[in-house]
Every structure is written in structure tokens, then in C-alpha cells.
Write a structure and sequence with these properties.
Order of helices and strands: HEEHEEEEHHHHH
Strand content: 15-25%
Keywords: Amino-acid biosynthesis, ATP-binding, Cytoplasm, Histidine biosynthesis, Hydrolase, Multifunctional enzyme, Nucleotide-binding
Helix content: 40-55%
CATH superfamily of the largest domain: Phosphoribosyl-AMP cyclohydrolase
CATH topology of the largest domain: Ubiquitin-like (UB roll)
Region (Phosphoribosyl-ATP pyrophosphohydrolase): 123-208
Number of strands: 6
Distance between the termini: 31 Å
CATH architecture of the largest domain: Roll
Pathway: Amino-acid biosynthesis; L-histidine biosynthesis; L-histidine from 5-phospho-alpha-D-ribose 1-diphosphate: step 3/9; Amino-acid biosynthesis; L-histidine biosynthesis; L-histidine from 5-phospho-alpha-D-ribose 1-diphosphate: step 2/9
Shape: globular
CATH class of the largest domain: Alpha Beta
Largest sheet: 4 strands, mixed
Enzyme class: hydrolase
Protein name: Histidine biosynthesis bifunctional protein HisIE
């Protein structure tokens, strides 16, 4: 594992290398990026982990959708600055709902398909922000204040928000109160050092 990681020329692209992802039948699925930690997690778990340049964090492919990529083989190019992953794709690879991200051919009309709702990724982003506020408190942060006041306050607020959902009248009010509930649930989980991923694992276990 260490030998493969050190073989990659990380310095050429500021610690990040492009990764071509292909399924076991030879179809190219997507183009992603990795840093050392993402490659390490991929090798350790057997599931593809990538570095998100926009969110500046490592994520496992399919962590929200369940469309994971089981890695069968990893290859490196002749210049040691690009990787090829051969994977067993669970579900689809593209957020549009297409199997591959390369589903469009230039010069031909685009075919519309039913997309996948990836709005749940906001929960992961919110979870990360809550974690940051816990580890690095900010004076004007409501989240940091909740952690400072401790378990009793955190649990009380979650209970209050649950009641607000139950008594809410009308579609818009229910949506609003549910958003508050989800936020306070993430705070409660972070207080107990439980990641949202663990809850997703339990739901996935029950689905099987």
C-alpha cells in the first residue's frame, strides 16, 4: 500500500491527481480526483474515495446515494501522475441518473433521463460545518453555543423541534420545522461523536 502511494507523483499537481474510473466491462464512468488520503482510504476499504475540489474534503463515492464503487484494480500511468480505477459500479455513476458521466455525444441531441435527487448532500455539508463549530468554537455561532451549554440544552432543543414538527400546520411550515429538526439532530449526533454515515450504514443494513 505504502509503495503504491509513494509511487504517485503528488507534487506535479499540488498533491492532487486525476483519476479515470472505468467499470469491469471497459466503459468509462467518470473523471475524479484523489489526494494521498483519498487513495489511502480507497486501498484500506476497497471502495472508491475521492477528493472534492469544491468542498475541499474526501468523500466516498455513493456515501449518500448508495451508488458505491467497489475497486477491483488500480493502475498508474507512465508519468506516475494519473490513476485508472477499474470498479464494480453499484447503481449509476452520474448524478444525472445516467450510468456514465459521458452519456452525451457532441453533435447529437441530449436525451433526458430521470435524475437522482442528490439534495441530501447538504446534510453532509451541514454535518461538517457543525463538526468544525464543535472543534473550533466561534463566539457568534449558535452551534458553538449549543455545544458550550452541553447535553441538556442540546437534547432539550431537539425535543422542542420534534414537537414543532408535530404541531406544524401546512406544507411549508412542516418543511421549515423539519429543517430545524434535522439540524438539531445533527448537533445531537455530533455531541455524541456519531457520524451521519453510521446512521446511513444502519439504514442500509436494514434494507438488506
Amino acid at each position: 500500500m505504502k509503495e503504491l502511494i509513494e509511487k504517485v507523483n503528488w507534487e506535479r499537481n499540488n498533491g492532487i491527481v486525476p483519476v479515470i474510473v472505468q467499470d469491469t466491462k471497459g466503459e468509462v464512468l467518470t473523471l475524479a480526483y484523489m489526494n494521498k488520503e483519498a487513495l489511502m482510504k480507497t486501498l484500506e476499504t476497497g471502495y472508491a474515495h475521492y477528493y472534492s475540489r469544491s468542498q475541499k474534503r474526501i468523500r466516498m463515492k455513493g456515501e449518500v446515494s448508495g451508488n458505491v464503487q467497489k475497486v477491483k484494480e488500480i493502475r498508474i500511468d507512465c508519468d506516475n501522475d494519473a490513476l485508472l480505477l477499474i470498479v464494480e459500479q453499484v447503481g449509476v455513476a452520474c448524478h444525472t441518473g445516467n450510468y456514465s458521466c459521458f452519456y452525451r455525444k457532441l453533435g447529437e441531441p441530449e436525451k433526458a433521463v430521470g435524475g437522482i435527487d442528490y439534495s441530501l448532500t447538504i446534510l453532509r455539508e451541514l454535518e461538517e460545518l457543525i463538526k468544525q463549530r464543535k472543534e473550533n468554537p466561534k463566539e457568534d455561532s449558535y452551534t458553538s453555543r449549543l455545544f458550550k451549554e452541553g447535553k441538556e440544552k442540546i437534547y432539550k432543543k431537539f425535543g422542542e423541534e420534534a414537537i414543532e414538527v408535530l404541531v406544524a400546520e401546512g406544507r411549508e411550515r412542516i418543511i421549515y420545522e423539519t429543517a430545524d429538526l434535522l439540524y438539531h439532530l445533527l448537533v445531537l449526533l455530533a455531541y455524541n461523536e456519531i457520524s451521519l454515515g453510521k446512521v446511513m450504514e444502519e439504514l442500509r443494513r436494514r434494507r438488506k
